[in-house]
Prior knowledge:
This protein folds into 2 domains: 2-113 and 300-324, Medium-chain alcohol dehydrogenases, catalytic domain (Quinone Oxidoreductase, Chain A, domain 1), CATH 3.90.180.10; 126-266, Rossmann fold (3-Layer(aba) Sandwich), CATH 3.40.50.720. Helix 1 packs across helix 9, helix 2 (119-141) crosses helix 3 (159-170) and helix 2 (119-141) packs across helix 7. It has 9 helices and 15 strands. Strands 3, 4, 5, 6, 7, 14 and 15 form a 7-stranded mixed beta sheet that branches. It has a 6-stranded parallel beta sheet with strand order 10-9-8-11-12-13. It has a two-stranded antiparallel sheet with strand order 1-2. The chain is 28% helix and 27% strand. It starts with a strand and ends in a 6-residue tail after the last strand. The radius of gyration is 20 Å and the shape is globular. Helix 4 (185-191) links the parallel strand 9 (174-179) and strand 10 (195-198).
Amino acid sequence: MFDAILIEKTEGASRAILTGLDEARLPAGDVTVRVAYSTLNYKDALAITGQAPVVRHFPMVPGIDFAGTVEHSDNPAYAAGDQVVLNGWGVGETHWGGLAGKARVKGDWLVPLQAPFTPRQAMAIGTAGYTAMLCVMALERHGVAPGQGEVLVTGAAGGVGSVAVALLAKLGHQVVAMTGRPEEAPFLRALGAAEVIDRAGYAEPGKPLARERWAGAVDVVGGQVLANICAAMRYRGTVAACGLAGGMALPATVAPFILRGVTLAGVDSVMCPREDRLDAWRRLARDLDIARLEALSTEIPLSGAIGAAERLLAGRVRGRIVIPLDPGAP
C-alpha cells in the first residue's frame, strides 16, 4: 500500500481525496517507479479542483511529473535502482501520475536523472522549469542572444516564470520580470531580474503596433497580455509562448508579424520528443544555478496538496511546490 491523491467522479462532479492504494491497482506499463518527489503544477491544480476538464479518465491520480527510483523494469533501457524523471506524456490526465508513492509507466516516457541533481532538486525544477528551458532554447533557435536587448518574462513569480528569469539572467540576458504581484519584486530581483513591471499595463487592449522594446519574451499568460507583447517586440524579435493563464483567445493583429518579422514560437512540454527533453535537462544541469533552487521551491506534504491547489489557482503561490513521497529520498 502507498499514499496517493485520487480524483473520483460521481454524479457528474469530480472530487480529490487522499487515500491508500494497492500496487495491484497501478495501470499498465513496463517500468514501476518508487516516487521520491512530485510537484504541484498549474495543470495539477486544475485537475484537483475540477476547474477545467484536465482529467480524461476516472479514477485518476494527478501529478504531471515525478522523480524516483526504478523498482521493476521490463524495458531494456532501465534497470532496478536507476533514478529517473518523468514530465508530461499525459500522466495525471489519461494515465495515473506522480502524486502517489508509486507509478507504473511506459519506459519511453522516462529520462535519466541528470547529474548533479538529486530527485528533490529535479522536482524543484519540475515540468515548470523544464518548460522554461524549452522556452529559452526556442528563443536561442530564433537568434535571441545576450546583448541584443531586454527579454521579458511574464508570470514571473510563478513556476515557469521564476525559472525562466533565473536561467535567462545567468545566461547574460537583461531580464524584465512581469508580475501581477508587485510585492514579489525583491524575490524576482534576487533571481536576476534587472527590472520588475506590473502586468496591469499590458492587460488592456493596446495598439496593433507599440513602441519596440523586447528582443525576446517568455509568456505563460496568453490572451491580451500576449497580444500586447507581440505588438511591442523589436524587429525580428521572438516570443516563446507556453501558457494560457490569461485565456485562450489571442486578440492580436498580423501587424507585428508582417511589418516587424516577429516570431511567435509555441512551446509544448507534454509531447516533446525525447531528444529535446534530454537536451533541456542537460542544459538545466549546466545553466541553472542550483543554489537558487531553494529560493524557487516550497515543500509541502502530500496531505497538503489539495488545499494548495486552490491557492495556486488564486495566484498565491511563489515559485515551485515540491511534494515528498519517499521520506528516505535525498
